[in-house]
Inverse folding.
């Protein structure tokens, strides 16, 4: 998982317009990735265009254009963007430990690990300026992991409470109540009323 | 001519009974209430609400469906204006100026003008269908794979004009969208392209997933990183209804949007998708003050919304005259009609005139209901914006996640939406606009598929394919538009370099 | 105004309630997995079956759309489900009959991992020509194609779908090398056919019916062993002396270890339901001939059809894994 704040060190100084430059850099990487990933696809066969022809063409165009923008951004002055090395390191440590947990303990324990760490180091993440992305990402991840085994109501409750902590105006009691309200509402509205094929409560508890 | 009015009268007499109007009202209300949830687009809304029409008479069901259809479509625009999340392809453009208006406390006028413009466009398009359906069908049939390919190229070139910043960055975003759209199984050979054997990727990233990510999640992240500004703007709400000046500004745009949308809606191969942003581009180009666009220009909402509704109306034409649905939503409508024992097609007009004309009249009724419901609702929606943001955004996230999950009950797709959210946030932070990305994402596959079909049908003789008159014309206009867009920026760049 | 709005909301919900009141939050539903997106004809069939199963079992029945891999994902979902009778698969023919020949690394065995429940309905294909093709019969078409080999192009609703393979089968039978163009669904192919952009389309008879009756296109032959009740005036391929035949169907399967008594119960409910006259009429309007069968009959049909399509798949050269 990429944090939006992954910074190249010394972003300022040798690049005149780092905002355009580093935005385009990611797209250049995307183009290179696409070129690599479509290498094994056939191109033109007889008179028919192959599955790989058009993706490679556009990946090349994207890469060339990204280079162009980067080149112009290197020399034309523009606004700067704030990157922070400590934040990047924190995110890297956070993600890599989570990956290790995932490897040995599966998605659900990973989600719990992510949640616990996020709340334990809430102050730290806030100081580093990455509180919002961390909590929003963890909240969505937890929803995705919990919705099947625990049912919609609990997954929504978790999503609301964790994502609420992304804001500096976080109030614990208020978010607990709001999570409860939205959890019950979602179960009633989407499952009872719209008959979507989700379980409202943990499926283990459903009667046959 | 009198024939047509006799027919329309027949239709009205079928559609306008107290029961039917009540059914349409309920349908439109339910469609609006579900469609307005961010993350749940018109397609999902209609599919979810279909069961409420079971057990009704065919005409009653049809009219209720018309209500649901327009309600759901309008619901998509409402979320675009209020929370910057497009519910479907057509409302991507509405986010550009609609959301800006909302930020300036003018969500009310934006919502109202889009309801009014839609209603006007709907009325015009209904008459157009009644009068000109047959000749317009012939136009639609002129478009083969080669023509659609060049139309999509033109569309992509026009998309450049959507961006406010430098052209190179807009082009970059469009290309990114196209490249992302190519993750899927190839339509012609079934080979997986960048899918890494993940079934969830074999049909490509869903529009809802990308839109929830780059608009929904990214927008929330952006707001949380600078909380104070947002709180300020939502406090001052100035008037719920458009002023006289607003109406005067918007009216010509509504008119042009209606015409453009009516025409493009006829083309079943994706014309309707182009309508909203073709209209936006047109308004921006002919405006005396193009710099207001992207900063809350009412024409930027009125034009595309009218175009979009006119197009969704005239996309019924191929359905009625040929029995061919123009898009997924239309196909769903056909499915619904067949469930009620109506098989739309050229035969219906002759064999069951009351049904055929009842359907056309019900479109108009559906549009009218939209206006009846939504003008009063504007106040409610605007009040929704006054809910403290710390409560609002978790709720938006809940609906986004449930919307994504309801597509395929897949946790993986929720993770994809999250990844797109982080990607979108990175782009926003570096001042790259996501609307052109989404348009590239929508038009890219259409362009590729049609090019490959054209090459297969034309047996690889490119010169012959590209020299078909309509194709050549469309491609030539694409080149001209591209040059027009590029030249000033080249000149400007040279100037700035010289100034230094 | 506020009260009006409140009334409206109440009204809308009241309208929704009776249809979903049975849905119980606390009871395990029976789910019918449909391996394609909501909105199409097959999806409608799944919803009709859900209604019937709900009536027959007096339990909540939900339809779950599980798309991906041209149907593979949905099949796999059921294959990996608990065999407790709470998961069923409604699938068209291709994922359970031809995919083992199409996808080299198919993650399920359609014969071993699934247990047949009941055949629901079947339908046939037809070949049609557009307005620019000056022929009235299939033999005329063959002569015309031999004189104009550059026109030997046919469209189908999708690459890797049965109409694609059937078109290849036809080309092989008459000795013409046909170029295939895959569309996204019948509608797109039909538009091009009517507009004269492509000379030939092979797809289901139903999808061609309305425009055929309207005279905009011409159906030349149908693919079942007997004539189609939808277009009884059109001969079959067999009648015309081309030894090709093909039908497609929708059927219900369950995970392989589901107990037999559950399977038999479901099979009976489904078969009885589709045999009712009003249901037959409803399905016919969707272009489906209602069938119903015992589990054993479906199993036999599945094997027969797998043998029939294998050569066509090979001849098409359609091979996503290369």
């Amino acid at each position: 998982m990429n944090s939006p704040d992954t910074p190249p060190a010394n972003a300022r100084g040798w690049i005149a317009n780092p905002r355009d430059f580093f935005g385009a850099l990611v797209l250049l990487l995307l183009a290179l990735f696409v070129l690599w990933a479509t290498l094994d696809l056939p191109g033109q066969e007889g008179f028919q265009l192959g599955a790989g022809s058009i993706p490679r063409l556009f990946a090349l165009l994207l890469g060339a254009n990204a280079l162009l923008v980067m080149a112009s951004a290197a020399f034309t002055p523009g606004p700067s963007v704030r990157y922070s090395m400590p934040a990047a390191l924190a995110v890297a440590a956070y993600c890599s430990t989570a990956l290790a947990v995932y490897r040995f303990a599966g998605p659900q324990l990973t989600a719990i690990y992510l949640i616990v760490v996020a709340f334990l180091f809430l102050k730290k993440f806030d100081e580093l300026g990455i509180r919002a992305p961390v909590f929003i990402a963890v909240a969505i991840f937890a929803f995705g992991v919990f919705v099947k085994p625990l049912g919609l109501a609990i997954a929504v409750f978790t999503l609301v409470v964790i994502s609420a902590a992304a804001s500096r105006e976080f109030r614990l009691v208020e978010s607990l109540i709001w999570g409860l309200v939205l959890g019950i509402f979602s179960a009633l509205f989407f499952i009872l009323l719209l008959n979507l094929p989700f379980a409202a409560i943990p499926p283990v508890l459903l009667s046959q | 001519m009198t024939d047509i009015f006799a027919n329309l009268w027949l239709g009205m007499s079928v559609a306008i009974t107290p029961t039917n109007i009540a059914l349409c009202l309920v349908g439109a209300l339910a469609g609006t209430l579900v469609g307005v949830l961010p993350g749940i687009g018109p397609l999902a809304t209609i599919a979810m609400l279909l069961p409420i029409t079971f057990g009704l008479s065919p005409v009653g069901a049809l009219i209720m469906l018309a209500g649901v259809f327009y309600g759901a479509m309008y619901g998509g625009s409402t979320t675009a204006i209020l929370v910057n999340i497009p519910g479907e392809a057509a409302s991507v453009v509405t986010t550009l100026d609609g959301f800006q208006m909302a930020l300036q406390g003018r969500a009310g006028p934006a919502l109202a003008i889009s309801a009014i413009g839609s209603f006007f466009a709907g009325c015009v398009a209904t008459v157009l269908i009644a009068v000109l359906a047959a000749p317009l069908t012939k136009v639609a049939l002129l478009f083969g794979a080669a023509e659609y390919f060049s139309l999509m190229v033109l569309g992509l070139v026009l998309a450049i004009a959507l961006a406010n910043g430098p052209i190179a960055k807009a082009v970059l975003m469009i290309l990114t969208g196209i490249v992302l759209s190519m993750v899927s199984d190839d339509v012609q050979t079934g080979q997986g392209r960048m899918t890494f054997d993940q079934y969830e990727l074999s049909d490509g990233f869903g529009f809802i997933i990308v839109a929830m990510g780059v608009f929904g999640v990214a927008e929330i992240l952006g707001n949380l990183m600078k909380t104070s500004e947002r709180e300020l703007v939502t406090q001052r709400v100035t008037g719920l209804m458009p002023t006289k000046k607003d109406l005067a500004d918007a009216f010509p745009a509504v008119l042009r949007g209606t015409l453009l949308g009516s025409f493009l809606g006829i083309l079943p191969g994706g014309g309707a998708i182009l309508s909203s942003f073709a209209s936006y581009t047109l308004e921006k180009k002919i405006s005396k003050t193009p710099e207001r666009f992207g900063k809350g220009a009412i024409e930027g909402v009125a034009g595309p919304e009218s175009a979009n509704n006119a197009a969704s109306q005239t996309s019924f034409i191929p359905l009625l005259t040929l029995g061919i649905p123009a898009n997924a939503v239309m196909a769903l409508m056909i499915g619904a009609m067949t469930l009620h024992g109506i098989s739309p097609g050229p035969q219906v007009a002759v064999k069951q005139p009351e049904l055929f004309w009842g359907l056309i009249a019900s479109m108009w009724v559906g549009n009218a209901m939209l206006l009846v419901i939504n003008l009063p609702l504007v106040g409610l929606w605007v009040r929704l914006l006054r809910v403290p943001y710390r409560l609002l955004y978790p709720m938006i996230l809940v609906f986004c996640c449930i919307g994504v999950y309801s597509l395929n009950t897949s946790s993986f797709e929720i993770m994809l939406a999250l990844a797109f959210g982080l990607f979108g946030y990175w782009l926003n932070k570096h001042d790259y606009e996501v609307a052109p990305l989404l348009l590239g994402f929508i038009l890219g596959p259409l362009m590729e598929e049609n090019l490959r079909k054209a090459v297969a049908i034309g047996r690889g003789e490119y010169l012959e394919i590209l020299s078909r008159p309509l194709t050549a014309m469309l491609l030539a206009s694409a080149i001209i538009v591209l040059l027009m867009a590029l030249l000033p920026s080249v000149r400007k760049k040279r100037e700035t370099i010289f100034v230094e | 105004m506020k009260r009006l709005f409140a009334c409206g909301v109440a009204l809308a919900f009241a309208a929704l309630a009776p249809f979903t009141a049975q849905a119980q939050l606390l009871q395990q539903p029976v789910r019918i997995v449909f391996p394609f997106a909501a909105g199409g004809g097959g999806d409608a069939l799944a919803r009709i079956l859900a209604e019937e199963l709900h009536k027959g079992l007096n339990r909540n029945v939900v339809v779950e759309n599980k798309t991906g891999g041209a149907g593979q994902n949905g099949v796999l979902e059921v294959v990996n489900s608990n065999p407790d009778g709470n998961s069923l698969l409604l699938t068209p023919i291709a994922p359970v009959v031809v995919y083992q020949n199409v996808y080299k690394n198919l993650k399920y065995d359609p014969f071993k991992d699934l247990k047949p429940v009941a055949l629901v309905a079947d339908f046939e294909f037809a070949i049609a020509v557009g307005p620019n093709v000056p022929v009235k019969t299939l033999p005329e078409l063959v002569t015309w194609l031999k004189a104009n080999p550059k026109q030997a192009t046919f469209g189908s609703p999708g690459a890797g779908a049965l109409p694609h393979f059937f078109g290849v089968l036809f080309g092989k039978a008459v000795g013409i090398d046909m170029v295939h163009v895959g569309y996204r669904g019948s509608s797109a192919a039909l538009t091009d056919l009517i507009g004269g952009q492509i000379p030939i389309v092979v797809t289901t008879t139903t999808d061609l019916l309305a425009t055929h009756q309207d005279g905009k296109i011409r159906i030349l032959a149908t693919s079942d062993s007997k004539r189609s009740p939808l277009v009884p005036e059109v001969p079959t391929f067999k009648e015309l002396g081309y030894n090709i035949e093909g039908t497609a169907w929708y059927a219900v399967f369950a995970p392989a270890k589901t107990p037999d008594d559950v399977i038999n119960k479901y099979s009976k409910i489904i078969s009885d339901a589709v045999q009712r006259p009003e249901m037959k009429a409803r399905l016919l309007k969707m272009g489906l001939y209602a069938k119903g069968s015992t589990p054993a009959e479906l199993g036999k049909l599945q094997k027969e059809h797998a043998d029939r399509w294998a050569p066509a798949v090979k001849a098409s050269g359609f091979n996503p894994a290369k």
User: Anything to note?
Assistant: The CA atoms of residues 149 and 176 of chain C lie 8 Å apart.
